[in-house]
TrEMBL record:
Predominant location: nucleus
SUPFAM superfamilies: PUA domain-like (SSF88697), SET domain (SSF82199)
Protein name: YDG domain-containing protein
Subcellular location: Chromosome, Centromere; Nucleus
UniProt cross-references to Pfam families, sorted A to Z: Pre-SET, SAD_SRA
Region (Disordered): 1-20
PROSITE patterns: YDG
Transmembrane regions: none
Originating species: Citrus clementina (Clementine)
GO molecular function terms noted in the UniProt entry: double-stranded DNA binding; histone methyltransferase activity; zinc ion binding
Residues of the YDG domain: 131-273
A Gene Ontology cellular-component term: nucleus
Length: 347
């Protein structure tokens, strides 16, 4: 239960084995699967050396071992996701069943992350990667920020800009754009990202001008180094359960100072998505908001991911029309005026 997991300072999940530990063992022995058509030879970047798109048919020296390596890494990433979600569901059920238990107020995602780390179920990250992370694909979704850390996509649990020292300068490796700093996320291929700092997100302190330091200077250095930045987009509906999606690699084109909504100077960065990468599902195709044209209580959305052709004209009806040869059998039931009573025999 949850109380057992809190006693894991010296010996996490001591015998008898808890349900969470059994889930980890079971999931680890299940094996894993991965999409056979997802490997870095198609629409992927080399981490640092070659900032050009590579296609399998255009690469005479395409290494089969690289494909197998990506498949293996992809399998590990997917298995880590499944394991995290399984343990997370277990702890959430325990938390709901016994809300008065000790430490039930602690965030479940942090508890699960610590369990998996202690059990060496994290994907080991020996150094921060510039460019694409092996095994992670555009469109991967994450319910918790800590999942980004577990697979090496974005190691900062709370910070929006992750960076590494590269050739004597710090360079940004990834950013999380969730709109918290007045980021402009509307354009699918261009992102206007607001820098960090200045007490913008801390309501307990007076806002101040942002400084060109830490993550801000790292993003600025990326302009000259032309190193790609991984972009993870998120929403701002909830803090703890914020869904994030990996959007792919971007290049920082320029930056400038502007006056923020709080009246202080902030740094703005313009990032452009590198072409040739897979598109996110919500970016692709023509969308019709409601094909029922208001006849249904809940709008019925239709998406055409192939081209820009609108749906053909038709008359939407809300009732079922059966062909002449079909005689549907009416549902069985009594003829009580006000519904069936609890008595054995209906009046």
């Amino acid at each position: 239960g949850t109380s057992q997991m809190e006693r894991k300072k010296h010996n996490l999940l001591p015998p008898p084995k808890s349900a969470s530990e059994e889930i980890i063992k079971a999931k680890s022995s299940e094996g894993s699967y991965c999409k056979r058509n997802s490997y870095p030879g198609r629409n992927a970047y080399e981490n640092r050396s070659a900032l050009v798109m590579r296609d399998e048919k255009d690469s005479p020296g395409h290494d089969r071992g690289q494909e197998n390596f990506h498949l293996g890494q992809r399998s590990r990433v997917r298995e880590t996701f499944r394991l995290f979600q399984a343990v997370c569901r277990k702890l959430l059920h325990e938390k709901e069943a016994k809300p008065d238990r000790q430490n039930s107020h602690k965030r479940v995602d942090y508890l699960v992350a610590r369990i998996l780390k202690d059990k060496k179920k994290y994907i080991p990250v020996h150094k921060k990667v510039i460019g694409s992370v092996p095994g992670v694909e555009v469109g991967d979704e994450f319910q918790y920020r800590v999942e980004l850390n577990m697979i090496g996509l974005h190691l900062q649990i709370q910070g929006g800009i992750d960076y590494v020292k590269h050739e004597g300068k710090i360079n940004a490796t990834s950013i999380v754009a969730s709109g918290g700093y007045d980021d402009k996320l509307d354009n699918s291929d261009v992102l206007i990202y607001t820098g960090q700092g200045g007490n913008v997100m801390n309501g307990g302190k007076e806002p101040e001008d942002q400084k060109l330091e830490r993550g801000n200077v790292a993003l600025a250095n990326n302009i000259h180094e032309q190193n790609p930045v991984r972009v993870i987009r998120g929403d701002t509906k909830a803090f703890e359960y914020r869904t994030c999606i990996y959007d792919g690699l971007y290049l920082v084109e320029r930056y400038w100072q502007d006056v923020g909504s709080h009246g202080k100077l902030v740094y703005k960065f313009k990032l452009a998505r590198i072409p040739g990468q897979p598109e996110l599902s919500w970016k692709v195709g023509l969308c019709v908001d409601d094909i029922s044209q208001g006849k249904e209580l809940i709008p019925i959305c239709a998406v055409n991911p192939v081209d820009d052709e609108m749906p053909p004209s038709f008359k939407y009806i809300t009732n079922i029309i059966y062909p002449d040869w079909c005689r549907p059998v009416p549902p069985k039931g009594c003829d009580c005026t006000n519904g069936c009573s609890k008595l054995e025999k209906c009046a």
